[in-house]
Write a structure and sequence with these properties.
three-stranded antiparallel beta sheet; 157 residues; three-stranded mixed beta sheet; 5 helices
Length: 157
């Protein structure tokens, strides 16, 4: 690893530890030449994943779009950023776990709705209203009824 201070290519690792999220390794290094210390991060290189949109277009998977959608659904609700980060990471992991190189936007939407349903029902309904393109009040009411039916069934079990 090249030193950011003197450009020397020799350094030694002083300390290594996983990051809080557990998806990368933080390494504290010391330059052999100048003795200054710096930090590097090692992360798994993800294979490219393409998202197949409803109209057939393909675009690279962008986890930030997933996170943005979750944040919008959770606006003004008691959902913390660590919960949002956990939901985002879960959806990303599930998308890559298929190992097919492509995932449909519909599948991603279902994964997000599943995560939101477990965390906050209002956020789930908000996301579903946009994702499923509710065109009238009847669509909205059917989704709410489905949610109420599932909740009633859970109480009976």
């Amino acid at each position: 690893m090249r030193c950011q201070y003197c450009n020397c290519i020799d350094s030694k690792v002083i300390d290594s530890r996983p990051t809080e999220e557990g998806n990368s390794i933080r390494r504290r290094r010391e330059c052999i030449n100048c003795g200054r210390r710096f930090t590097t991060y090692e992360k798994i290189e993800m294979l490219p994943l393409m998202v197949v949109k409803r109209d057939g277009r393909r675009e690279p998977f962008d986890v930030q779009k997933i996170k943005t959608g979750i944040i919008h659904a959770c606006e003004k609700l008691p959902v913390s950023m660590p919960q949002i980060d956990a939901m985002t990471a879960s959806v990303e992991q599930a998308a890559y776990a298929a190992m097919e190189g492509e995932v449909t936007s519909q599948h991603l939407g279902e994964l997000v709705m599943q995560e939101l349903r477990n965390v906050n029902e209002v956020a789930y309904v908000r996301f579903a209203a946009v994702y499923r393109i509710f065109t009238d009040l009847g669509d909205f009411m059917r989704e709410l009824q489905k949610l109420l039916d599932e909740k009633a069934q859970q109480k009976q079990e």
